[in-house]
Every structure is written in structure tokens, then in C-alpha cells.
Design a protein that fits this description.
The complex is a heterodimer of chains A (398) and B (212). Helix content of chain A is 63%, strand content 11%. Chain A contains 13 helices and 7 strands. In chain A, strand 4 (328-334) and strand 5 (338-345) form a beta hairpin. In chain A, helix 4 (48-60) runs antiparallel to helix 7 and helix 11 (272-287) runs parallel beside helix 12 (303-322). Chain A is rod-shaped and about 120 Å long. Chain B has a 6-stranded parallel sheet with strand order 2-1-3-4-5-6, sandwiched between helices. The longest helix of chain B is centred in the last third of the chain and has 17 residues, at 180-196. In chain B, helix 2 packs parallel to helix 3 and helix 6 (127-136) runs antiparallel to helix 8. Chain B is of the alpha/beta class and 212 residues long. The chains are: A alpha/beta (398), B alpha/beta (212). Chains A and B meet through strand 3 and strand 4 of A and helix 6 of B.
Chain lengths: 398, 212
């Protein structure tokens, strides 16, 4: 309660401004002019459209509203607190009485543009405010707001009609304008006021809906991807007893997820690096042997490089299938003159001449692939010493 | 090898426990920490021989741990251990002062070997780290300010290539007909270059390769 001790020592004028400032607040965002009407509306807990209507109406009283607005802006502080809860019926009544009291007060002071102008203007302002009040009028997410908003539409429309009628009555003396044009203009204005909020809220809702849909599409896609990949893999891991298989599954999943998170969006293979990673991943899954890939430099994938990757894939598969090694290493280096890939395993190795027909076919196929692209393949192996396949492809005129 | 005391730093409890179980048979583990501040305080208090440190942690990550501890305890040896293998993480850890970098998929035996090697003052290069270094020091040789630090010798390149191919130091030595000690010397010298080189391509390379 230190505010009380402070107000005692302060001069009266300053104290009054302080008091006023508890209500006169300028809003930081969603402003029309200076944010004064919005700030006051937040403080009083009523929709800002009505405060704005009050200022417009008071402005018709010899410009008093405009002067009040300027004075209010000058003394107002910038507020950023949450809007207060809506006032109770008694408080609303008090506010209405204050408003009309001010109007009559200004009328007494002869700050007045004439009864027909001011009162029809007031009717139009509040009718418009009732229609434009966005707080719950079209907010279908708030079911409680629907029922009162119907009555408000009717009330707003009646206010508008009354305003328009009294307005056209007041200007009917100026017959020279042409009654047809006046009627048409007034009707158009009425329609705009009545249907404007509906149209704007419709557009706003459509935009919001589109944003929501895009977001939910993304979420669905992510969920689908995680379901197809991570969740499936986790399920598989739970069902398997073989630690080796578990490791392979986890590694393949890790690689896949990494690619999905950081790789190209549609998963197309753009370079040697990525296609080697993909190759390694598929060998891992098929043969349950980890494949380590290290790539130095990178080149875009073309027909020749694809042949290189395919040859490396066969060598890797071969090593995974037959070497018995706990893992296979793939090392690729792209230099200015050539691309070179080593597929190495620390497995049991073999004597080149002694291998069976089936494996010979694979060796031939690796050699053949490389030769067709102008490259070469070299296989060195010794029993007990593991195997190394070296693939070289000159860069040529890339 | 009981004279090697280990300290583990990782914010993933599960992983921390796993590594602890794997390594506690071979090394006394004198402390663990789950965040940067605990780690710095704990390492300063217990003064371990080797610290296994994770890269990504709230509060500055492994790099902050290494830098802070080395200020007061320059003899502490760090081995970076991480699930992340993006080049800029690797280079940042090494330049902060880690003597090696291995990924969390490493086998327990290999990890124990790596700890011993780091404790002996040698560097631990996984195949992937060797690949990164070749990549970073590769390319056209532009005018370099300090050839001693900013370039790799042909022999160092050869050693790194063989490591990148997945060969153990022993096999590298045999392949090049040199001793294991010489291989270790080469790798340590590459580590020094990696830590001290002012080669601006290193920074640019790491940022170019930023994959996020």
C-alpha cells in the first residue's frame, strides 16, 4: 500500500492525473489512431468498438471528442496489460449514463453541431460498433458468444437503420443533392457497415484456416514419416533378441533420420556422398553389418559416378556377406584428377584365385563396371588379413 | 591400467550410465557430471587423467568445459564423445583442446583403447575425423601464412587416408612400413596443426559444411 503514502505528499493535480491514468491507457498494438480508445476499452473491459463510437459521437458535439482524445493521448501512459474482464451490467449502465451525461453537458455548453446531426451520428456510430465488434460476433470457437451476437446484430442493424433514417431526414431539406443519389449512397453505406464485418471476418477465417491446414499437413506428414520409420524400427528393436540386429536397425534408423532432418527435402540423391551413405544404409539393413562411410570432397551424381557407387555397393555387399568382419569401411576421396573409393574389411580374406564361381561373378562385375567407365578396380586380399577393394575413376571432362 | 582415472560428462543420463558400466571394469571412474557447471567444478576437484566429454550440453556444451578446465588444469586430457558428427562440432572440440573425437557408436573395446591412447598423450582420430581433416586441409593450396602449421605433409595425408579407410594404427604402420610410434607422432602433429592453424579455410570450410 505504498501508493497511498505517496499520494499524500503529491500535489492535487498530479494526483488527479495519476488517478486518471489508471484508466487512460494507450494500447501498444491493434491501434486505429493512437491506441487511446483501445487502451481505455482494455481497462474497462468492454469491446473497443464502443469506445471508438463514443469518441466519434462526442466529436460531433462541437469537436469535444477530438479534444478529449488529444488530451487523453497527452496524459496517457502506454499499457501492455491484459484486458480486464468484462464489466457487470451495473457498470455498463454507469458508462452509458456517463456518455449521455457528457453529451448533454456539451449540448448545454452549445458545443453542438445540431440535434439531427449529432443524434443520427451517434446512432450510426453505435450501430456500426455493434456490427463491427469483433470480440465474439463471429468467433465460432466461443459457443457462448454466438447467441448474444445474434441479438447484437439485430440491435446494431436497428440502430443503423434508425441512424440512417434520421440522417436522411435531416438532409432531406437539402433536396438539391438529388434524393435518388442520396438514397443510393446511404443504402450502400448501410450495406457496407452491416456486411463489412462479416466479409472481413470471413477473409480472416479463411486465412487462419489455410495456415492451420498447412500446419496440420506438416504435422501429419511428420507423424507419418516418424511412424513409418522411427516407430517401426523401435518396434522391431523390441522384438529382436539379436544385439547385432538391434545395432544395425538403430544405425540405419539414425542415418535415415539424419538424412530426413538435414538432407534434401524430397530425399533425392544429389551427390556422391549422399548416394554412398544410402548404399551403406541399404547394405547394413540387408546384411546386419555396420558400414562406416567417410567421404572427402563431393561431386554431383552422374552416370559415371553412379557406376562407381554401384561398384562400391557390390564390393560392400560382398564384404558384408562373406568376410565375417564386424564392420565394413568405405572411404571415398574426390580429387581434382580422379575419384577414388576404398572398401575395406578386417575379415577373413581370401586367395583371389581360389574363390568360387558365384563370387567370381561379383568380382568380374565390379571390374567390368569400372572398365566400362574408363576406371579401374583393384582387389587385394590375403587369408586372415581382410580384403580391400580400390576403385578409381578419372574425373575426365566433368 | 588402473593409473588412469576417468571422469564422464554427458547430459544424457541413460548414455552416461551405459558408458560407466562399459568402462568401469577397466578404469576407476572418479566422477560424472550432467551439465557444464557441475563438470567444471567436478573435474577441478577430482583432477582425473582423462575426461570423456559430450559435445552438446546446455550452458555452452563440451567446448565450454574444455576451455574452462584447461585454464586451471592444463594437463587434463579430453576425449570428445558425441552422437553428433557434424564437422563444425568436431573442429570446435578439437580446437578447444580435445585430444580426440569419437562418435557414440564406437565399440566398448575401441573406446577403451581410445581412452588409453589419450591418457598417453596421443591423439585419437576416428575414420570420420580423419576424413574431416583431409577435407578441411584439402583443396587448392592458396598462399598460407605459416606453411608449418597450415599445410599437411604428404606423409601426414597418407596416414590420415589410411585411418579414414578404417585401419587401426598398427595396420597403418605396417602398410607404410613405419613404427606405430611414428604413426602416433604424425597424428599428434596433425592434431597440433588442427588446433593451432590459422588457416582461414578451416573456419570457412566448417561453416560451408554447416548442414542445419
Amino acid at each position: 500500500m505504498d501508493t497511498e503514502t505517496r499520494t499524500e505528499v503529491e500535489p492535487d493535480a498530479a494526483r488527479m492525473i495519476d488517478r486518471v491514468r489508471t484508466i487512460v491507457v494507450r494500447r501498444r498494438d491493434d491501434r486505429v489512431i493512437m491506441g487511446l480508445a483501445g487502451g481505455i476499452a482494455d481497462r474497462l473491459g468492454i469491446p473497443d468498438a464502443y469506445v471508438r463510437a463514443a469518441f466519434i459521437s462526442l466529436s460531433l458535439a462541437g469537436g469535444a471528442g477530438a479534444v478529449l482524445y488529444l488530451v487523453g493521448t497527452a496524459i496517457a501512459i502506454e499499457g501492455d496489460e491484459e484486458p480486464n474482464p468484462a464489466p457487470q451490467g451495473r457498470q455498463v449502465l454507469a458508462l452509458i449514463l456517463i456518455f449521455f451525461g457528457l453529451m448533454v453537458f456539451f449540448r448545454g455548453l452549445r458545443l453542438w453541431f445540431g440535434d439531427s446531426w449529432v443524434w443520427s451520428g451517434t446512432l450510426l456510430a453505435f450501430g456500426g460498433a455493434a456490427m463491427w465488434d469483433r470480440t465474439s460476433l463471429f468467433d465460432s470457437s466461443d459457443p457462448a458468444g454466438i447467441a448474444p451476437s445474434r441479438t447484437r446484430i439485430v440491435a446494431g442493424a436497428l440502430l443503423l437503420l434508425a441512424g440512417l433514417a434520421s440522417f436522411s431526414g435531416s438532409i432531406s431539406s437539402i433536396e438539391s443533392l438529388g434524393p435518388a443519389i442520396t438514397a443510393a449512397a446511404l443504402t450502400a453505406a448501410g450495406f457496407m457497415i452491416i456486411f463489412g464485418p462479416w466479409v472481413t471476418s470471413l477473409v480472416r477465417d479463411l486465412n487462419q484456416e489455410r495456415r492451420d491446414r498447412i500446419r496440420s499437413d506438416e504435422r501429419t506428414e511428420m507423424a507419418a514419416h516418424l511412424h513409418d520409420s522411427v516407430l517401426q524400427t523401435l518396434a522391431l528393436i523390441q522384438r529382436t533378441d539379436d544385439p547385432k540386429r538391434m545395432i544395425t536397425l538403430a544405425r540405419a534408423q539414425e542415418r535415415d533420420l539424419r538424412n530426413w532432418l538435414y538432407g534434401t527435402e524430397d530425399g533425392t540423391l544429389v551427390g556422391l556422398r549422399q548416394s554412398l551413405e544410402a548404399m551403406a544404409s541399404s547394405v547394413e539393413v540387408t546384411h546386419n553389418v555396420p558400414v562406416d562411410v567417410v567421404v572427402v570432397g563431393d561431386i554431383p551424381l552422374n552416370e559415371r559416378n553412379a557406376a562407381l557407387v554401384a561398384a562400391a555397393g557390390e564390393a560392400t555387399t560382398n564384404a558384408a556377406k562373406h568376410s565375417g568382419a564386424p564392420k565394413v569401411s568405405v572411404f571415398a576421396e574426390v580429387r581434382d584428377d580422379a575419384a577414388e573409393i576404398f572398401v575395406t574389411d578386417q575379415g577373413k580374406g581370401f586367395v583371389l584365385d581360389s574363390i568360387g564361381e558365384d563370387r567370381h561373378g561379383i568380382v568380374d562385375s565390379i571390374m567390368g563396371r569400372m572398365k566400362r567407365q574408363g576406371g579401374e578396380a583393384e582387389i587385394s586380399s590375403e587369408p586372415g588379413e581382410g580384403t580391400e577393394v580400390r576403385l578409381t575413376l578419372p574425373r575426365g571432362n566433368q | 591400467m588402473t593409473d588412469i582415472n576417468l571422469f564422464l560428462v554427458d547430459d544424457h543420463k541413460l548414455f552416461l550410465t551405459g558408458v560407466e558400466t562399459e568402462l568401469s571394469e577397466q578404469f576407476p571412474i572418479i566422477g560424472t557430471a550432467g551439465d557444464v557447471d557441475d563438470a567444471i567444478a567436478g573435474i577441478r576437484r577430482t583432477e582425473p587423467t582423462v575426461v570423456l566429454v559430450d559435445v552438446h550440453m546446455p550452458g555452452g556444451g563440451g567446448v565450454a568445459v574444455i576451455k574452462n578446465v584447461l585454464e586451471t588444469h592444463p594437463d587434463t586430457r579430453f576425449l570428445a564423445l558425441s552422437v553428433s558428427d557434424s564437422p563444425e562440432d568436431v573442429i570446435a572440440m578439437i580446437r578447444a583442446g580435445a585430444r580426440g573425437y569419437v562418435t557414440k557408436s564406437i565399440s566398448p573395446t575401441e573406446l577403451a583403447d581410445a581412452v588409453k591412447r589419450v591418457a598417453d598423450g596421443d591423439a585419437v582420430f576416428s575414420p570420420r575425423l580423419a576424413g574431416f581433416v583431409l577435407d578441411a586441409f584439402g583443396g587448392a593450396i592458396s598462399p598460407v601464412s605459416d606453411p608449418e602449421l597450415d599445410q599437411l605433409t604428404p606423409r601426414e595425408r597418407e596416414v590420415l587416408r589410411l585411418i579414414a579407410r578404417g585401419l587401426a594404427y598398427k595396420q597403418v604402420a605396417r602398410k607404410l612400413s613405419i613404427s606405430i610410434k611414428t604413426v602416433e607422432t604424425h597424428v599428434s602433429s596433425v592434431l597440433r596443426k588442427l588446433q593451432l592453424s590459422s588457416r582461414h579455410e578451416l573456419a570457412r570450410w566448417a561453416s560451408d559444411r554447416r548442414i542445419v
